Amino acid sequence: MKVACMCSGRGSNMKSILEAKAAGRIPGAEFRGLICDEEGAGALETAAAFGLPSVTVPFRDFKGDRPAFEGRVLEALRGFGTELVVLAGFQRVLGKTVLGAYPGKVMNIHPALLPSFPGHQVWAKETGYGVKIAGATVHFVDEGVDSGPIILQGAVPVLETDGPDELSARILAVEHRIFPVAVDWVTSGRVTLEGRVSRLKGFGPSEAQAEAVLIWPPLTA
Ligand code: GRF
What we know:
single chain; alpha/beta; 22% strand
């Protein structure tokens, strides 16, 4: 499956995916290119280091004309022969132009356990709210904000001493573990949808899996 990544910033999630590809862990994906909406973003350097071509479509050049911006993005996606779009730290909400061209074929990572804490700056909201378990979610993208079908989630504890920075670093580590796995699942055709519920082929129920429960803080503390 031909994949294009979209990033806005440092690109550490894309790097984790490209490293997994280089290590043979995503055999079903052929990475064709990066589309970046910010000039000078770290993701552009990362793509170059992996020999991945990139196109920059600076959002600010479009002076708020979102359909025109998305039209240019779509042209770049088509230029790469894209079949699957992987939003790896892409900080804008995509609308009908791109989503209509790629229905069910756009994936995103969000640094929270959705449906809790959609949107931006979630780490301060989580530490401020006082949740005890946080995490990250890989999901398909629909026209809402972080509201599409969930593919995979990873959880981490929130420590007493955590501020937003400490929590975001712990969540980012789990993002780097789960995103390459989810991209492998999707590009190898293991994920299907029943309504908004994703199903993973070859993952049947078992007692051992059902017992793997994380309680935080530990009850013995
Ligand atoms: C990550 O926290 C991701 O969950 C969110 O944006 C951030 C991107 O980080 N969507 P990076 O550019 O992948 O390092």
